[in-house]
Amino acid sequence: MISLIAQLPLARGRVIANAPIGRQTWFGVGGPAEVLFRPADIADLAGFLAALPPAVPVSVIGIGSNLLVRDGGIPGVVIRLGRGFAAVAIDGEDVRAGGAALDRIVAFAAADAGLGGLEFLSGIPGSVGGSLRMNAGAYGREMKHVLVSAIALDRSGKTHAIDSNALGLSYRRSELDPSWVIVEARLHGSPGDCAGIAARLNEIRAAREATQPVRARTGGSTFKNPPGDSAWRLVDAAGCRGLVRGGAIVSQQHANFLINTGTATAADLEDLGEEVRHRVYEHSGIMLEWEIERIGLAGQIKSPSAPFRGKREGLAPAAWEGKVVASQDEALSFSHLTPPLSAPKGQEGDILALRSVNALALSRGCDNGE
Ligand SMILES: Cc1cc2nc3c(=O)[nH]c(=O)nc-3n(C[C@H](O)[C@H](O)[C@H](O)COP(=O)(O)OP(=O)(O)OC[C@H]3O[C@@H](n4cnc5c(N)ncnc54)[C@H](O)[C@@H]3O)c2cc1C
């Protein structure tokens, strides 16, 4: 049988067979991509998609901060944008950002230019493409409040300029065709004073540190808030805080976060999430909806958790299987990867870019609080 990679069109970017993509997500678990394509630029991506046999499945991923890749990996071609899509430029009161630009970098670049209203992005550890698809938001603002327009490529490589309204953005969802790749977004800011914007960035950082396990291997909020209620409150009320399955645990700090303690498989995390949904339903009659996207095939573990790089307090998962752990230190102390400079493997280039944005902000006397 001819391998998939042998059937793919030539490209200037990187085409990698059996790429360990699950390990590069925030959870650090899950199987490989059958083929990973990292296009060099828009023309490279367009040419590749145009020549790609229509039967080949295509998935798009960003930083992997809202993804659980299943243990059997992702069949077909996985597209992940990189440096060629990470530019951030100020255009009047708008910020033009590539699909791979980190949300944080967009927030700091806007702050540096004296543009407010985009501070909420500093607390979201995703890319612009992923955040647009998810209509990511925090502290009362979402992408839909700041998005002017986007540019996306369809499965055949054709370019589309899309108005914000046409994306159908609503609570953690968009109506964009799942096979389309967002390559650029135009976001609107409002002129403000540097000190006020910097103070807001600091407030957001402090609030995150106080309420979320930001140094753990997690996918952020696991479930969407049902109308009129909070997912974390329902999970807590159902007694699920600290619930364990294999190497996965429901965060003690924030009951709507699942944590990979260092030994979890994707199946542990997904099973734990399903157990929580079941218990919440039994307790409150409400069936929670997953916010974290689960992709790929269940099954054989081809790539267990990425090697653990931080300190971990003693954990004996087998003994706690299916039980609530009263006081579990889930804080996987990534002391050498302190936010905002932490990122999954493969994002180091973005971190360097973030450092230079911060340096730029400081050199202009507009202290962005980082
Ligand atoms: C500690 C932590 C805190 C978080 N806090 C928040 C929060 O406050 N608010 C919030 O909304 N989310 C939060 N999240 C979730 C996550 O950061 C956001 O959903 C983020 O927008 C996902 O971006 P990503 O690049 O990681 O996308 P991924 O997780 O890689 O992908 C998410 C979805 O976007 C699609 N996608 C990715 N890139 C593209 C692209 N270029 N074109 C088309 N589709 C694409 C993928 O197919 C997938 O459907 C948090 C996550 C963590 C780990």
Characteristic key phrases:
370 residues, Uridine Diphospho-n-acetylenolpyruvylglucosamine Reductase, domain 3, Uridine Diphospho-n-acetylenolpyruvylglucosamine Reductase, domain 1, 9 helices, 19 strands, 22% strand, disordered C terminus, binds flavin-adenine dinucleotide
Any guess at the CATH architecture of the largest domain? 2-Layer Sandwich
The CA-CA distance between the termini, in Å, is 53 Å
CATH topology of the largest domain: Uridine Diphospho-n-acetylenolpyruvylglucosamine Reductase, domain 3
Shape: globular
Assembly context of the chains: single chain
Figure out the total of helices. Answer: 9
Q: Largest sheet at a glance?
A: 5 strands, antiparallel
Q: Residue ranges: pLDDT <50 for 5 or more in a row?
A: 306-323, 325-370
How much of the sequence is in beta strands? 15-25%
User: Could you say which structural class the secondary elements and strand pairing correspond to?
Assistant: alpha+beta
Strand tally, please?
19
Small-molecule binders: flavin-adenine dinucleotide
- Roughly how many Å is the radius of gyration? 20 Å
Q: Tell me the series of helices and strands, N- to C-terminal.
A: EEHEEEEEHEHEEHEEEEHEHEEEHEHH
Number of domains: 3
CATH class type of the largest domain: Alpha Beta
Bin the helical content.
25-40%
**Residue-averaged pLDDT:** 85
Strand order of the largest sheet: 6-7-13-11-12
